[in-house]
Structure formats: structure tokens, C-alpha cells
């Protein structure tokens, strides 16, 4: 006799998402008790997620009107997507910054949520280049681009991004593929998952091959390889003085890559990004090293070991 489906698996997708949202309260607090509330809420999510419809790769997660197919593995980031809580500070910045006809580069596109959001906001004349190296994620990313009705022009680029052109080893995050990395110790599960050799380029080399398109916004989230990516985009930044950069700062993954907040900030400065804000909302300007303690306080407040930054180039 076949085993009956668990009650949660019998829910509609909407019902499953409602369960996740109901359990999200502890993750959605701010203030001094936020880390404790998140920790108390974590066991509930660890139990809920494997038993819900959201682990079926044939059932897309619905986020902001997008239907996002996925690998079907339990992961923190997929939970956050399902609850509408994944990198909300980045989503808020993108909604604030992206205007019709803009050109955007999404480095570390994963399932394509931010790629699709930028294309929808940018409209029919916009262009978005989505860089993703994982052979497991690329067909899912392409499916999400194909099956969501956005007006913008989207190009999926099957490549990692760094400071040199060639091939690199990608360590798959386990179980969370969004936390894959070029650096073994930075990948979820300490790089114990599958590894593969993938193509790598620099944004400067890509832009030169593409005849130096105008780029208005770059988003980078690549688990510790951000310093290398910045080193490979100095000319792109110089040619686009109005460029806005949204980038993740994560001390743990930077350390796994042999980098630090100091080298991260030096890489920003080498690209001309001298006007930096914590993503917020609202964005809060910071300088370095003067605001080192404030940055670390924000990392602790976020409760996930990282913070997102908005970086601009001051005119003149």
C-alpha cells in the first residue's frame, strides 16, 4: 500500500507558503532580541521545509509575481524566497534604482529572481546580463527566464566572474546551492558537495568582447570572490562613471578566500567607489575604517554574518 502523503504535502502551494510566512515571525524582527528570536524560530523552519511542497522541483516558488523553478532541495535561501524574505534590502534598492531602459549585470544570478526583477523594472528597452557558472543551476535559470513574462532583454552568461579569464573549480554548496563558491571553505558544507570546472571571465574582458555596452548597475553576490570580481571590473567602472554597485560583504567567506574587510574596501576604492552605504532600508552612508564598528554591528544585527552595500562613484 502506498504511503499516504503527509498533511503538509497535501496543501496547495498557497497554503504551504502561508505556513512558512506564519513561521517567519522570528526571522522578521529587528532590535536587540532579533538574533534570539531567529534562533528560536530556526527549529520550526528546519522541520517545516522538508515536509512542504516547496521541495518538489516541479512546483515553482512564487515571488513578486514570478514563478521560480528550483532544484527541489531543502535550503535556507529557498525558504526565504518562499516567504518573500530573501535579501529584501537588495530588492528594495533595486526597486529604488532601476529605471526604464537601464542595463544591469547580475553576477551570481542563481535562480534568477533579481535578474527578472531588474528586467521587469527596466522595461522593454532594458538589458540584463545574468552570470551563473553552475551546470546544475543554468538550465533552471534559463527556464525561469523563459517562463516568466518580463519585457526586458535577458542574456544568461554561463560563467563565473573573477580577476582572470580561464577555468576555475566551483564547489557546490550543500545543501544550499546558492552558497556555492570558487573557494572551498566558503561554500555551504565546507565544500563537501560536488565540484566542477567552470569557465571564468572578468567583467572587463566580457565588456570588451561585448563592445563596451553601457552598464548602469552591477549586483555581485559570489561567496567570497567579490574582491577578485572587483579587481576585474576597474575599466568597466571607469567607463561608466554613473555606475551603481550592490555587493555583499561577508567576513567569513572573505576570510575563506584569503581576503578581509580591509582588502574588500581597498578593492572598492580601486574601482572608484568612494560613496558607500549600508543597504538599509533606508541606505546609511559609511566610511572605512572610521565606521568599522558600525559595519560589524550591522552584520551582527542582520544575524546572518553578512551585509549588503550600495556603492557609488562621487563625481569629479
What does this structure look like?
The chain is α/β, with parallel strands linked by helices and 316 residues long. It has 2 domains: 8-82, no CATH class; 88-312, 3-Layer(aba) Sandwich (Rossmann fold), CATH 3.40.50. Helix content is 34%, strand content 19%. It has helices spanning 13-22, 34-48, 76-82, 88-97, 113-122, 138-147, 203-209, 226-231, 234-239, 251-256, 261-270, 292-302; strands at 61-63, 66-68, 103-107, 127-131, 153-157, 160-161, 166-171, 195-201, 217-220, 244-250, 275-278, 284-286, 306-312. The strands form 3 sheets. Strands 5-4-3-9-10-13-11-12 form an 8-stranded mixed beta sheet, sandwiched between helices. The protein has a 3-stranded mixed beta sheet with strand order 6-8-7. The protein has a two-stranded antiparallel ribbon with strand order 1-2. Strand 3, helix 5 and strand 4 form a beta-alpha-beta unit. The chain is globular and about 50 Å long. The N and C termini lie far apart (74 Å). The model is unreliable at 1-13 and 22-30 (pLDDT under 50).
Task: Describe the sheet with the most strands.
Answer: 8 strands, mixed
Domains, number:
2
Tell me the name of the CATH class of the largest domain: Alpha Beta
User: How many DSSP E strands?
Assistant: 13
Average pLDDT confidence is 84
Percent strand: 15-25%
CATH architectural group of the largest domain: 3-Layer(aba) Sandwich
User: Termini separation (Å)?
Assistant: 74 Å
CATH-defined topology of the largest domain: Rossmann fold
Structural class: alpha/beta
Low-confidence stretches: 1-13, 22-30
Indicate the percent of residues in helices.
25-40%
By CATH, the superfamily of the largest domain comes out as Vaccinia Virus protein VP39
Amino acid at each position: 500500500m502506498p504511503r499516504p502523503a503527509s498533511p503538509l504535502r497535501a496543501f496547495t502551494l498557497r497554503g504551504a507558503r502561508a505556513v512558512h510566512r506564519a513561521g517567519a515571525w522570528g526571522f522578521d524582527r529587528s532590535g536587540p532580541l532579533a538574533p534570539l528570536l531567529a534562533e528560536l524560530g530556526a527549529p520550526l523552519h528546519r522541520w517545516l521545509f522538508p515536509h512542504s511542497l516547496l521541495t518538489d522541483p516541479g512546483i515553482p516558488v512564487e515571488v513578486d509575481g514570478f514563478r521560480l523553478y528550483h532544484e527541489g532541495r531543502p535550503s535556507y535561501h529557498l525558504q526565504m524566497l518562499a516567504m518573500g524574505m530573501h535579501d529584501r534590502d537588495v530588492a528594495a534598492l533595486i526597486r529604488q534604482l532601476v529605471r526604464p531602459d537601464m542595463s544591469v549585470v547580475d553576477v551570481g544570478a542563481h535562480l534568477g529572481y533579481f535578474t527578472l526583477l531588474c528586467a521587469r523594472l527596466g522595461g522593454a528597452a532594458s538589458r540584463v546580463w545574468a552570470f551563473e557558472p553552475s551546470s546544475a543551476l543554468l538550465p533552471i535559470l534559463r527556464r525561469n527566464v523563459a517562463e516568466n513574462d518580463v519585457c526586458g532583454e535577458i542574456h544568461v552568461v554561463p560563467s563565473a566572474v573573477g580577476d582572470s579569464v580561464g577555468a576555475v573549480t566551483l564547489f557546490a554548496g550543500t545543501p544550499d546551492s546558492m552558497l556555492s563558491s570558487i573557494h572551498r571553505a566558503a561554500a555551504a558544507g565546507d565544500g563537501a558537495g560536488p565540484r566542477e570546472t567552470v569557465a571564468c571571465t572578468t567583467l572587463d574582458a566580457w565588456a570588451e568582447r561585448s563592445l563596451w555596452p553601457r552598464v548602469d548597475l552591477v549586483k555581485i553576490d559570489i561567496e567570497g570572490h567579490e574582491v577578485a570580481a572587483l579587481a576585474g571590473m576597474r575599466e568597466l567602472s571607469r567607463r561608466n562613471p554613473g555606475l551603481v554597485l550592490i555587493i555583499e560583504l561577508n567576513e567569513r567567506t572573505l576570510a575563506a578566500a584569503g581576503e578581509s574587510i580591509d582588502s574588500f574596501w581597498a578593492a572598492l576604492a580601486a574601482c572608484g567607489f568612494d560613496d558607500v552605504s549600508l543597504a538599509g532600508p533606508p541606505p546609511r552612508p559609511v566610511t572605512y575604517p572610521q565606521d568599522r564598528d558600525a559595519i560589524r554591528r550591522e552584520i551582527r544585527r542582520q544575524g546572518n554574518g553578512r551585509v549588503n552595500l550600495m556603492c557609488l562613484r562621487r563625481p569629479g
